[in-house]
Design goal:
The chain is an alpha/beta fold. It has two domains: 336 residues, Up-down Bundle (ABC transporter transmembrane region fold), CATH 1.20.1560.10; 243 residues, P-loop containing nucleotide triphosphate hydrolases (Rossmann fold, 3-Layer(aba) Sandwich), CATH 3.40.50. It contains 23 helices and ten strands. Helix 6 packs antiparallel against helix 9 and helix 7 runs antiparallel to helix 14. It is elongated. The relative contact order is 0.08. Keywords: ATP-binding, Membrane, Nucleotide-binding, Transmembrane, Transmembrane helix.
Length: 606
């Protein structure tokens, strides 16, 4: 079985998913589990930093109440050095904990990106036919990118601020418990306000990420080479700009709402906490004025210093809580993709074939894209294709020709019957075996934005330069490549738009030739070629097909005359089967298709 990313395993939810927030929290916490050793070091640094920080007010009290009034210069020097040492130690601890926590956070983000990408790689072709590319890109880029602050600093911030607050409260109680009670009276109210603000921002964050995904989809579709060509040739450039502007305007509104939501309430909290020292001075003065126990100047200054020291981590802690609740919306969107059911999976103990012979059988095959589909796309398909033989599949558009061919490499799984390779159900074979055994050249050629050589080596990374050139020669494209200024180092451009349709198709054929699979699927592989180029490439395909099992989805019937068998599909069923001559003699559906093809070929273009 192909090993899965450990994160995918860790994040696979139970069958009955809980809707309670703690389930989300526990899942998020598990993201950091592989790095618990480093986080323990961060925790230790945070604890030391908090202890050192709490020491400063006590040193200050000793300076004000003892060293200065008693004129003890030696003690004063030691206390001052102690305060300087605490500042230096805090600086060092802060740098170290930032380094470690940032590294851990970035590793978690890397794990998330990799896990989402791997899950998407395992999704069936059907998923990508119904999902906008921009939406997929937004989940990986915007959603995970939006979590950067949370995963890189939140864990450290929570531990650091919580430790600082606890240590400060303990020290404040040790100094004066009455002033401590006054300082903490409003803290529960502040916590409630922060949680409320966090819930409100979480809702807005969900809307904002959806809007960013919509914008990403528009950019991906309209600013690709195909999108630019379509927009300009249809005169829709201004309209597309207006649509993008409208989407961007909605994003502006959501961003402003997200940043301003609860801002006044949080500001009030800050004002109240900033005014707390004045309240403490007033309380100390009133207590002393009414005959209560007096608070020494040193104790009062040290307490206010502690209270102000607690102010910063408390506000930070409240803000972190708001940020974490907001980030839950991003985590949920990422987990949605990680929880996507994988339709096509590898068996726990798959069958491996060193080198497939190429015997293909379709045994009473049914297929539907949707379980609720009234009529299946394919029904009752029975085909026996011995190794080395050729099958041509013809029929009207929408008859299921391409779908039939995609069942062999398991781009889709049958919903009834089975497809076998060398007598083994393709669902029982390992993915590596299928990838090595079946080569596909589809009618929609896809080339990477890389050099010609890199595009060809995508099929066989270890291929030598001579192997690449030999494959290009067989595909009738070597002379053209060699004539380019940069030869095989020429960049093909986005989706190969620096090459013509016929040239791209021949590069795709060369790529498959280089892989050398025993089974070839040619899904209208010559449909983009002119008549002269088609003839040359067809000769190359014929030579390549010698001794290989070949399934050809035919657009031009002239290319399938010599097939060992021809299957005519209509509405997902085989209505005729035989050789070219046998089917012509029957005078049925195939003969009608040939007559139509011949008429189209001989009709002069006006």
């Amino acid at each position: 079985m192909r090993p899965e990313n450990d994160l995918v395993n860790r994040w696979t939810p139970p069958k009955k998913k809980s809707q309670n927030p703690p389930a989300d929290w526990s899942r998020i916490v598990r993201l950091f589990r592989p790095y618990r050793g480093r986080l323990a070091v961060v925790g230790a640094l945070v604890a030391l930093s908090s202890l050192v920080s709490v020491a400063s007010p006590f040193l200050l009290r000793a300076i004000l109440d003892t060293a200065i009034p008693q004129g003890r210069t030696g003690l004063l020097g030691l206390l001052v050095l102690g305060m300087i040492a605490t500042a230096v130690a805090n600086g060092i601890f802060g740098v170290l904990q930032t380094l470690i926590s940032t590294t851990v956070g970035q590793r978690v983000m890397h794990d998330l990106r990799t896990a989402v990408y791997e899950r998407l790689q395992r999704m069936s072709l059907a998923f990508f036919t119904r999902t906008r590319t921009g939406e997929v890109q937004s989940r990986i880029a915007n959603d995970i990118g939006g979590m950067q602050a949370t995963v890189t600093s939140t864990a450290t911030s929570l531990v650091s601020n919580a430790t600082a607050v606890i240590a400060s409260v303990v020290a404040m109680v040790a100094l004066d418990w009455r002033l401590t009670v006054i300082s903490l009276l409003l803290l529960p109210v502040f916590v409630w306000v922060a949680r409320k603000v966090g819930r409100e921002r979480k809702k807005i964050a969900t809307e904002r990420q959806k809007q960013m995904a919509a914008m990403s989809a528009i950019v991906t579709e309209s600013l690709s080479v195909s999108g630019i060509l379509l927009g300009r040739t249809m005169g829709r450039g201004a309209s597309l700009t207006r649509d993008f502007s409208a989407e961007s305007e909605r994003l502006v509104d959501l961003e402003v709402r997200s940043n301003m939501q609860g801002r006044w309430r949080m500001a009030v909290i800050g004002i109240v906490m900033s005014a707390m020292p004045a309240l403490l001075y007033w309380a100390a003065g009133i207590t002393a004025g009414h005959g209560g126990p007096a608070v020494s100047i040193g104790t009062l200054v040290a307490f206010v210093s502690l209270q102000q020291g607690m102010f910063r981590p408390t506000v930070s802690l409240l803000a972190t809580g708001v940020q974490v609740q907001t980030s839950l919306a991003l985590f949920q969107r990422i987990f949605e993709y990680l929880d996507l059911p994988v339709d096509i999976t590898e068996r726990p103990d798959p069958v491996h074939l060193d080198r497939a012979r190429g015997d293909i059988r379709f045994e009473n095959v049914d297929f539907s894209y949707d379980p609720d589909q009234a009529r299946p796309t394919l029904h009752g398909i029975d085909i026996d294709l011995p190794a080395g033989s050729t099958l041509a599949v013809v029929g009207a558009t929408g008859s299921g020709k391409s779908t039939l061919s995609y069942l062999v490499p398991r781009l889709y799984d049958v919903t009834g019957g089975r497809v076998t390779l060398d007598g083994t159900d393709v669902r029982d074979l390992s993915f590596d075996t299928l990838a090595a055994a079946v080569g596909v050249v589809s009618q929609e050629t896809y080339l990477l934005h890389a050099s010609v050589a890199e595009n060809l080596r995508f099929a066989k990374p270890e291929a030598t330069d001579e192997e690449i050139r030999a494959a290009a020669r067989t595909a009738q494209i070597h002379d053209h490549i060699a004539g380019l200024p940069d030869g095989y180092d020429t960049l093909v451009g986005e989706r190969g738009y620096r090459f013509s349709g016929g040239e791209k198709q021949r590069l795709a054929i060369a790529r498959t030739i280089l892989r050398d699979p025993p089974v070839l699927i040619l899904d209208e592989a010559t449909s983009a070629l002119d008549t002269r180029t088609e003839a040359a490439v067809q000769d190359a395909i014929d030579a390549l097909s010698e001794g290989r099992t070949t399934i050809t989805i035919a657009h031009r019937l002239s290319t399938v005359r010599d097939a060992d068998q021809i299957a005519v599909l209509d509405a997902g069923e085989i209505v005729e089967r035989g050789t070219h001559d046998e089917l012509l003699a029957k005078g049925g559906r195939y003969a009608a298709l040939v007559r139509r093809d011949t008429q189209l070929a001989t009709t002069p273009v006006s």
